Amino acid sequence: MEEFIEHEKLASLLNSIGDRVEDDHSEREIELMFLNQGFFRLLGYEDVGTTLRSEYTLPSGKKADFITSGKKDEIRDSQTVVYEFKSPGRKLTRHEEQLFGYMTEISAKYGVLTNGHRLRLYRNTPTGPEHLPQADLTLGAVTEGDASILIMPLGYLSIEERNIRTVAEHAAEEVVKTIPPNLRLDYSEPQLDVFAEHFADYLRDKYRESR
User: Fold this and answer.
1) Largest Cα span, the chain
2) How far apart, in whole angstroms, are the C-alpha atoms of residue 206 and residue 163?
């Protein structure tokens, strides 16, 4: 399933960053590693300036390193996340209050704090950010299970769209099984249009059966 591929890719990416980080790297260099290695892109944030904001100015005038958020429509309703990057020599616990302040100021659902060696994920609640991180990962030793903890709260797709995508992928596989072996498909635009019609019919029939 695609979701598990994401877990594997995210774990590999974070480990690659952790292996590359040196103690003399700057905070900006850590930011660029995450950005250039495709961390945000893997999570689904490709529109810099819209769903991904850099040096985001908060109402107080302070600047958060990165902010991610969905489109706020019925499906892509990803929660706002604040990211703060520090240089490898900085202890993350000393910068928690800074991150928590940013999270509180814009009511971000989650916050991420990393120095390139460790990455911590914090959750916001109606009474304020939880001091106990939901995840505390050592970059360079991240497992797929660790990565799975990050994808749902940090990913661009909402839970609803992930569920819809999973159902659609499964349904598409079932439709492909019904195609006669002697029918050659090159998935050209005309063929995709025909496939889409049959796919829609298949889903309608399945929906009627389940009612």
Assistant:
1) 65
2) 16
